[in-house]
Write a structure and sequence with these properties.
The protein is built from seven helices and eleven strands. It is an alpha+beta fold. It has one domain: PPM-type phosphatase domain (Phosphatase 2c, domain 1, 4-Layer Sandwich), CATH 3.60.40.10.
Length: 246
């Protein structure tokens, strides 16, 4: 397995509210763990929410005796949700904060267990194309699903950044889970909307297929997002599950 993770503040924002975690080594009972979090909230609240969520999730997984990967992720994310909400209620400066979460673990060398809340995404990319595994929890995505607008209109809709689910906002959070069977040649991408709002899926596919190393691919994705405006923080984790070497 090869992997590279990176965050970038972008061209506009003064604070980086994206946070990533990437471990090829075991984290508790998971053989590996990858997380992207995109925080929201004024001042330092979004920055705090994303970092605290990831730290809570990883610590909960390390300490848990749960063996089922999906239940392990669910319990850890629910704990993070509870603690962020508690912090928000205790501290006026953190009031209203929350974060997206997309988390994944590669299991038995060929399966991907994915958990998602919000509009950060996970893709599986190969020579045949790019496939979005997660489903955005956003107002605009709901409009698309109900037939109110099409995909092209969604990309430029003024409410495209309004999310309908987040970690730390309500007493409990609904989490989507996906189990993906991987094949040789697949590349996994976790990212925040700072990437996907700046780049079309086709451009992401081109970059991931055009560059050799995971470091080059991650760096080029960030550069391209910034070249297209860099209007938000950018978070990227690239995983090549079947690649040999460090």
């Amino acid at each position: 397995m090869k992997t590279c993770s990176i965050t970038d503040i972008g061209r506009i924002r003064k604070l980086n509210q994206d946070y990533v975690f990437a471990s090829k080594q075991a984290v508790g009972n998971l053989p590996n763990l990858f997380i992207v979090a995109d925080g929201m909230g004024g001042h330092n609240a979004g920055d705090y929410a994303s970092r605290y969520a990831v730290e809570t999730i990883t610590e909960e997984i390390r300490q848990s005796i749960e063996q089922n990967p999906g239940k392990l992720l669910e319990k850890a994310i629910q704990t993070a949700n509870h603690r962020i909400l508690q912090k928000s209620e205790e501290n006026e400066a953190l009031r209203g904060m929350g974060t997206t979460i997309v988390a994944a673990a590669c299991l038995a060398g060929r399966y991907l267990e994915v958990a998602n809340v919000g509009d950060s995404r996970l893709y599986v990319i190969n020579n045949d194309g790019i496939r979005q595994i997660t489903r955005d929890h956003s107002l605009v995505e709901e409009m698309v699903r109900m037939g109110g607008i099409n995909r092209e209109a969604a990309r430029v809709h003024p409410d495209k950044n309004i999310i309908t689910r987040a970690v730390g906002v309500k007493s409990s959070v609904e989490i989507d889970f996906f189990r993906v069977e991987l094949e040789k040649g697949d590349t996994v991408l976790l990212c925040s909307d700072g990437l996907t709002n700046m780049l079309e899926d086709e451009e992401i596919h081109r970059i991931v297929g055009s560059w050799e190393s995971v470091e080059e691919k991650a760096g080029e994705l960030v550069r391209a997002a910034n070249d297209n405006g860099g209007r938000d923080n950018i978070a990227v984790i690239i995983i090549e599950p079947f690649a040999e070497g460090v």
